[in-house]
Design brief:
Largest sheet: none
Number of strands: 0
Radius of gyration: 23 Å
Oligomer: single chain
Distance between the termini: 66 Å
Order of helices and strands: HHHHHHHHHHHHHH
Strand content: under 5%
Helix content: over 70%
Length: about 375
């Protein structure tokens, strides 16, 4: 195994994320403990601690990424203190929201996570002296390796578990707890560290996947989607949800593949194709606008449809930067964070507020 990926390197990386990693580990341990807590009162208390750790762990990823190459002085601890206050505020708001009928607070957790995660990724990429294409290749390479190791760990665990259960008459819940422990301590920690690939030794498997396999799969998917679009245009019946969902997923996975493939300048047969492949996203945008427009016209604005509008706007900006301002591609995570904040948290224009007035107007 490559020495860069040993457990020693994983523990050494603790200094890069000294707050986020302990939050992940503590969250994992408390989650396991919460499975067998006999008293409901203690379960509620642990659940609130888990909520706090989720919120603080998310914002601490952004803070640790912000200070990756800065001295961790009083400003670092001050921002951590603000993060604690914000996390406590979220826990308090969730408790208050639980008394409001039909109020779904879970959507705010998703927005909260995506906002600070996007900011964390942005500062991780900014702290590395490489292009955004190379950064994605490094992240993919490290993620691929961690997944291979996790697969081998899971395979070994699934082989050992039945033997241990039969020989020692162990509780099956104990094995589940051990698997959760491995998932939190190794898999989630590795997932976090993969976003700051300070040192990687790119291997043959990574280059093969990015230069040959992934672009080939992407081209096949484009062909299938275009055949489907041609079919529904001939029939004259455009299903709004299916079309918008499929094209959005294709964009989320397709654009990073094009970015990563562009990093390889030699022995890359798909490079000329992937350079212009994002052009095929342009016809999707009018169809997406039509799809979401029909849904809003018929049933009003919901938080999900409001978020879809911002996602289409993000697609337009990403495609524009890709072809006309390629040096600004590295700002995409920051752009995503700004749009998420505007969509989810800004007063009078956030998804809950707009959705509420849209539905109230429709009823009246």
């Amino acid at each position: 195994m490559n020495k860069n990926y040993t457990l020693k390197t994983l523990l050494f990386s603790f200094r890069k994320f000294p707050v986020t990693l302990p939050c992940i580990w503590l969250f994992t341990i408390l989650l396991i403990a919460n499975i067998h807590v006999p008293f409901i009162l203690y379960q509620q208390f642990i659940s609130e601690i888990l909520t706090f750790l989720f919120c603080f762990g998310t914002i601490s990823f952004f803070i640790d990424a912000l200070f990756l190459r800065r001295q961790r002085s009083k400003w670092y601890f001050f921002t951590l203190f603000l993060g604690i206050l914000l996390s406590l505020l979220f826990v308090w708001l969730e408790i208050r929201a639980s008394f409001i009928p039909y109020f779904d607070f879970f959507q705010y957790y998703i927005c909260y996570f995506l906002f600070f995660f996007s900011l964390g990724v942005y500062f991780c990429s900014q702290n590395l002296s490489c292009s955004f294409e190379e950064y994605l290749v490094k992240v993919f390479d490290r993620t691929l390796h961690y997944h291979i190791v996790w697969f081998l760990l899971s395979l070994g665990f699934n082989i050992i578990t039945p033997i241990a259960l039969q020989l020692f008459h162990l509780d099956s819940f104990l094995m589940l707890q051990i698997l959760l422990l491995l998932f939190g301590l190794y898999y989630m920690s590795s997932f976090l560290l993969s976003w700051y690939p300070e040192e990687t030794n790119e291997n043959v498997i990574t280059s093969f996947l990015i230069k040959y396999m992934l672009p080939g799969i992407l081209i096949v998917v484009f062909v299938i989607i275009y055949i489907y679009i041609t079919r529904i245009l001939i029939i004259g019946n455009i299903p709004p949800n299916v079309l918008l969902r499929n094209t959005a997923v294709l964009f989320l996975f397709g654009m990073p593949i094009c970015f990563m493939n562009a990093h390889y300048h030699e022995n890359n047969p798909f490079r000329r194709i992937t350079k212009w492949l994002p052009c095929l996203f342009f016809p999707f945008i009018p169809l997406q606008i039509y799809s979401i427009g029909i849904r809003i016209y018929e049933n009003g604005i919901t938080p999900l449809r409001y978020g879809a509008i911002f996602f289409i706007f993000f697609e337009c900006i990403a495609l524009f930067l890709y072809y006309f301002r390629k040096t600004c591609i590295k700002q995409l995570p920051l752009l995503a964070a700004i749009l998420i904040a505007f969509c989810c948290f800004f007063p009078f224009v956030n998804m809950k507020y707009v959705s509420y007035f849209s539905q109230r107007t429709a009823i009246e």
